[in-house]
Design a protein that fits this description.
two-stranded antiparallel sheet; single chain; 4 helices; 4 strands
């Protein structure tokens, strides 16, 4: 099955569209997580309330319950299970202890007692896109459209935009979180992405092609 997505080229008139062909590929069969009817009713009640009053405007006890309802809704409809994909071998989690019902374990097991390995050390992150719609694209299709052109023409700032609601501590905190959560492994030399420069539009990056280490 073939899908056609039309995306505008960088800095081009709307009529000048690029056509990128995507072929749907078969993905591992997924079993979607489903809540109980009572849990869905619980979330539905708060969804109606939130049409009038957002969760952060509710009294604190109701606001906490509202967050629980939102978490369940997002987990069911916004996350896709990746546990069936190939991964590193993991041993079975240890038996549940009474302490794990009131405290977090060092390796993160039993954060959810119904799914002991969810969110633990070495577990895959859930995806926001169905697995059948995500696959490793091969080169040269991976570089079309060029990430360098996208960066320069669509994402580059032409003027300074002050961040009036953040301070420098935010950057340090984000770096801490990302490097604490993810392990990209050690990139191998000679296995880089080779991104061509957009010299026709004056791209003067010091390296041509630009080499990006693979994770």
């Amino acid at each position: 099955m073939e899908h056609v997505i039309e995306t505008p080229g960088p800095r081009l008139p709307v009529r000048a569209l690029r056509r990128i062909r995507l072929t749907r590929r078969k993905a591992p069969e997924q079993k979607r997580w489903r809540r109980s009817p009572l849990a869905r009713l619980f979330s539905g009640v708060f969804a109606l309330i939130n049409r009038v009053v957002p969760w952060h405007r509710l009294p604190r006890p109701l606001g906490v319950l509202n967050l629980i309802a939102l978490r369940g809704t997002m987990r069911e409809h916004n996350l896709h299970d990746t546990s069936k994909l190939p991964s590193r071998a993991h041993s079975a989690p240890p038996p549940l202890t009474p302490e794990q019902l009131v405290r977090r374990s060092p390796d993160g097991t039993y954060n959810d007692v119904s799914n002991p390995r969810m969110g633990c050390v070495g577990a895959r992150f859930g995806r926001n896109i169905p697995l059948e719609r995500a696959w490793p694209e091969a080169e040269p299709g991976l570089l079309e459209p060029s990430p360098r052109i996208v960066s320069n023409q669509l994402m580059a700032r032409e003027t300074f935009v002050p961040a009036r609601s953040l301070n420098l501590m935010a950057a340090a905190w984000i770096q801490f979180m990302v490097h604490d959560w993810f392990d990209h492994g050690t990139p191998r030399k000679g296995n880089e992405f080779r991104v061509p420069l957009d010299t026709a539009r004056g791209d003067d990056w010091h390296q041509s092609p630009m080499l990006i280490r693979r994770t």
